[in-house]
Structures are given as structure tokens and as C-alpha cells.
DNA sequence: CCGACTTTGTGCATCGGTTCACAAAGGGAT
DNA sequence: ATCCCTTTGTGAACCGATGCACAAAGTCGG
């Protein structure tokens, strides 16, 4: 590579960004198994995508492959990690320590690469003060203070639906611009804030739709038996 | 296509299907608040989308609005529910009763409309036999039997990554064709099987990417204070 | 050093989805 | 009954993403 000094286009397609973590995971697996280089074809299979798409995705980060050979696994891991911002570590706060919040706090893959659960916050006096996954649960009144003190830049909302918007507003007010929302509500946020939503019931409903189609066929009995 | 007798085109765009649950949720809220009719503009705002998109989405189900007035809330709820297959009830099995599986089993919104957690399955003898969310946890050896006995048609995978593919193969072998996968692996399944993936760490990585761009700008300080 | 072979990177056609903008359709007032 | 006002439903332009197919670029054996 010659002038590879500034490969980042500053304009990576959203669809590509969403797939990079997938490639990264596949590459990590390969690195662990001692694979040194990989072709776009093999990596594509491992990531469950088509190889042309994979090559185009990677081409957005720069020209990191060698024609006739493939990609060097370690190097590609580094480049993708870097592009995704995983070379620094991100402090994450989880707000809402119900069943889901607890599960997230204990979730291994969460904490693994680049991310660190730095704070747990809840409103219920019953759980405030408890230690979960080695962390003290702090009171929601302390929300702003905790976020600043721990340098939190990503907030995970695992609160009940009714509380989500309020918490959201508060964390935005102290400068948080990235939110992962598990509460089943549409959050209203300024343009500059990034919200990603994970909604279990929506996923189920989409599955049900397709399942119904498959089961039903041309004419289905809607009859209860 | 003239004969509008069969408004369902049998070809609803995937993007539309993914938004219908959103509209449905907004409509349920309105119905509870006693709203009788709603314009595409208002519903769009409530669902967080653009009104033209909403109208086009709804037009795929049929012509259920009244020009100059809007949509009748109750009626629209029914039509969307019907289209999504929520008028019947779906038996869901959760495989893997770790932190996440437990959270899912207890998740209210899960069980609410159309879905019913019908079985919990795990491999750990420690938890088999426990009662969680009113359900007995059954042993993974019973997987096939349980699925058949309870009429499960949707399986939620909340197992460790290493176990997911095996469980997946087994449930497919007994006829399951809809899977919601929380394990961080790419499942390999036949064409006919529908897999949706929820991956917490991928969502975080996407957020980190954007956060980095925002924070970083041209040259960023990675300094921890 | 050359020629055959492999695999990348990408131009181009295509496709699905989004958005605009407006004619058609209905309600309500006069 | 007629006209005006509101809001739907959709044709058409646009935009981003996908996938094909191939030239360019590199490796490796002889």
C-alpha cells in the first residue's frame, strides 16, 4: 500500500457499518484458530453474506487486501476495530436494572471488546445499593453525576416504557449522544443524538407475519381449530 | 390489479412489515386514550416516521382510510393485527434460561399480544426443574417432545453461542421455521426457515462508530479524563 | 523472467425503498 | 345540491444498496 495514510472516506454507507461488526466477529474466530489470511469468499461465508458485498464493504475502509491472496486476518481485525472505534474503550451506563438490565450487566459479549459497563442506575430503592456484576447500583437522582464522573458516553435504556423518555432527556442534557433503547417507545431526540432500538416484541411480530404466510398458504383457516 | 376484492397483495414489502408493529403500538396507545380516528400525519408522528411512508405502508394492506377524515383506530388495529397474524396466538419456546432467557421469560410485552411463552428449556441440571415466570424449566433432551406437545412454532434462542447451531438444527428438524436468535453466531439454516437476529454487541458497535465520528472529528483526544 | 492462476477492487445494471407532490375522494357547511 | 376543505392513495423521480462480471494486480511454479 502506498499512500494509505488517509484511507477513511468519511462516508461509509450505513449498511456497511452495520455489517462490519459481523466481519469482525468472524475474523476474531479465525484469529483464535490461528488462521493467518482469508479470502473474501471464505470470510463472506463465515459472516453469512455474499462475497461481492463483503469486498465492496471492505473497500470503503481502504485497500487492505492482496490480490491473489486475500486479507491478512490480524491486520483486518485492527483496521475494522479502528474504524468502528473499538481501539478506545467506551464507558456504558445501564439505566433500569430489572430483569433485562441485569441480564445486560452480566452479558459477557457486552463487556468484551471495547465496551465496559461503568454504571448501573435504577429508581427502585429496593435495588439501589445492590451489587450486580460487581457494580454498585446507584440511584436515578445521581444519574447526571454518575454519567459525568464515569465518563459515560453510551447509555443503555432498560427502563419501563413510561420512564424512558424522561431518562433519555436527562442524559442528553448532560451531553450523551448515543443511546441504545430497549424500552418499547419511540424516543424523541434532537437530530444530533443517535438512538438505536432493540425491540423484542417487534421482532416476534415480524416472525409471526412470515410464519403465518408460510402456514397459511393460499387460503388459510382462521378458525380456532 | 383491478379486482380489489383481495386487498392483500401477498406481497408486502419487508420494510413495511418491519414498521407495522410500530404503527400497531402507537394505535394501541391511542385506542386506550379513547381516540376514535387518526390522520396519517398524527399517526406518523406517534410512530416516528414520515406520513407519506405511513400512507404507502398502509396502502399495501388495503384501502382502510377515509379521505378527508383519516383512519378509524379500532378498525386499523384489527387490520394490522390480522395482517401480522396476531389474531391467533403463538406458542413460543425459550431455549437457554440464563440471565437473558430469564429476562425474556419475565418480559411483559413479550407475552402481551398474540404471543405466549409456552416452554422453557435448558441444559444445565441446576436450573432444570426450576419454576420461572410460572413455567417449569425442562431439560434440553426433551426439546423435541416439548415443542411438539406444546405446539411451539417460534423458538427463541438464548443459549451460549457454542450451543446455538445445534439447538437450531434440532428445532428445525421437528418443523420449526421461525427463530429469534440472541446468540452471537451466524446460524446456518435452510432457505425455508426464517431467522431474525438480535445482537446487543453489534448495536453497541454501530453506536460506537457514530459516536467516534461525532466526538473525534479530524483528530481526537483519547485521553481518559 | 515469464506465463498461468488466483483473488481483489470496482463500473454498471438493477432493485427495493423513500419522498415528493398532486389528483381523487370524501365530509361538512351553506 | 353545490362548493370548499381536508386527507387519502399513488405515480413518478430519486436514492442507496445489491450483485454481476471483469479488468487490474498480485503470487507462485517452472
Tell me what you see in this structure.
The structure is a homodimer of 225-residue chains. Chain A is 44% helix and 18% strand. The first copy, chain A, is α/β, with parallel strands linked by helices. In chain A, the strands form two sheets. Chain A has a seven-stranded mixed beta sheet with strand order 6-7-5-4-8-9-10, sandwiched between helices. A three-stranded antiparallel beta sheet of chain A has the order 1-3-2. In chain A, a hairpin with a 3-residue loop joins strand 2 (65-66) and strand 3. The radius of gyration of chain A is 21 Å and the shape is globular. The N and C termini of chain A lie far apart (66 Å). Chains A and B meet through helix 1, helix 5, strand 9 and helix 9 of A and helix 1, helix 5, strand 9 and helix 9 of B. The structure holds a DNA duplex (30 and 30 nucleotides).
Ordered list of secondary-structure elements with their pairings:
2 copies of one chain form a homodimer.
Chain A: H1 14-32, E1 37-38, H2 40-47, H3 51-59, E2 65-66, E3 70-72, H4 73-84, E4 90-95, H5 99-106, H6 108-111, E5 115-122, E6 131-132, E7 135-139, H7 143-150, E8 154-157, H8 161-173, E9 178-181, E10 194-197, H9 200-216
The structure holds a DNA duplex (30 and 30 nucleotides).
